[in-house]
Amino acid sequence: MKEIIKMLVVLTLICAACGILLAFIQLSTKEQIIEQKLKYVQGPAVEEVLAGSTNDLIKDRKTIEIGDKKHVVFIGKKEGTPWAFAFEVFSGGFGGDIGVIVGFSLEEDKVVGIDITTDKETPGLGKRVKEKGFRDGFKDRALTDTFKVKNDGGVIDALSGATVSSKGVCQAVTDSVGLQEKIREQIKE
Questions:
Q1: Which residues contact 28 (CB under 8 A, 6 or more apart)?
Q2: What is the DSSP letter of 159?
Q3: Strands 69-78 and 81-92
Q4: Strands in 125-167 per DSSP E
Q5: What is the pTM of this model?
Q6: Rounded to 5 degrees, what angle do the CA atoms 113, 114, 117 make?
Q7: Which stretches within 63-137 are classed as H helix?
């Protein structure tokens, strides 16, 4: 009986030590993970969406709180004057959440572009939402447009064989249109 208790105590101490070590590693690498995501995932997408900006989009980002959620907002400037902003939203696709950076003009009520940051879509089908041809369907669209696939009464051409993925991107853009007004107000302050 003493041997079983001794083994349980040792096992408990080992598990506790491993848990503390993992928590420490997570806390100590949190900032590095955020920086890597900004540099290698969101950064290239934001550069694509806010092409023509003359400022450092990553350095000039702001965190804006809406309700209980924080949004990292990238503000594009031309010659020191803000002209557009972009932020990331997520929506469900066929294989899981799709991350979409959506850019909006500060001068006009339109989408300046989108880019895909993360997805788990089917290679060869759903992954085609990353293609420039599909993404260009959102470019320069008025905010009053219906960001749905054409079969659902919208203005976006769905990708053949990837309707669920196409609808997921459309939903992300629709969600971002609702958020952009609140973000726009805070940027202008």
A1: none
A2: P
A3: antiparallel
A4: none
A5: 0.84
A6: 155
A7: 132-135
